[in-house]
Amino acid sequence: MTCNPECDEIKREVTPIGLKAEDRPDILCRIFKIKLEGLIDDLKEEKIIGKILGCKYLHYRVSKKRASGLPHEHILLFMSNEFKPQTPDDIDKHIIAEIPDENERPNLHGAVQNYMVYGPCGLYNKNSPCMKNGSCSKFYPKDFRQRTLIDEAGFPKYRRTDNGRTVKKKECVLESKFIVPYNPELLLKFGCHINVEYTCQTGSIKHLFKYIHKGNDRVTATLYNAGDPSEAT
Fold first, then answer.
1. By mean pLDDT, which of 4-18, 171-185, 214-228 is the weakest?
2. Which residues are registered as beta bridge partners of 74?
3. I need a surface site. Which of 40, 105, 152, 188 has the fewest CB within 10 A?
């Protein structure tokens, strides 16, 4: 979950005084915390995806910085057996990686366009930070797929049908190949980027937990007199 600096609650506080969200990180972080607590409450009360085992949830504020500099949260849920996705159809009930029909669900279409489009990268932007050796390190754009599959390693490959639907980002017209997986109910309720993924692989869980133990970002600096480098401290 990533903070949306354009949400109404933040704008209501900073716009009247002629400021932008980045000018008041205290307001930005406070409102993000309120929304995050609302998300956690919904998950604990089984309003979204069902019963959660153990401590109900595990959520951590990660210190890794993003280019946007926005607060964000990684959340890992341990589901009760009766609510744990067992088949691709179970995954499809909660996770979507397609562009919705703009006529049938205009609000959801707008939210996906605003918050859940990756990049663009690849042929649309070869200078994107994710590009490594001519291809996207996050494996976008994804392939079209008629149905959700789980590969031999346990990783999901979400349904992305070639239905002709598109969204626009940075003057690029994009298909579902660039959509980040999401839950429609969460996306509409909280109005920000919430990437929802099915994780049953130790590699995915390890990826989330490593941020808890990585510590704060650090920098090593040396101070010295420009006229006498031997005085470096």
1. 214-228
2. 60
3. 152
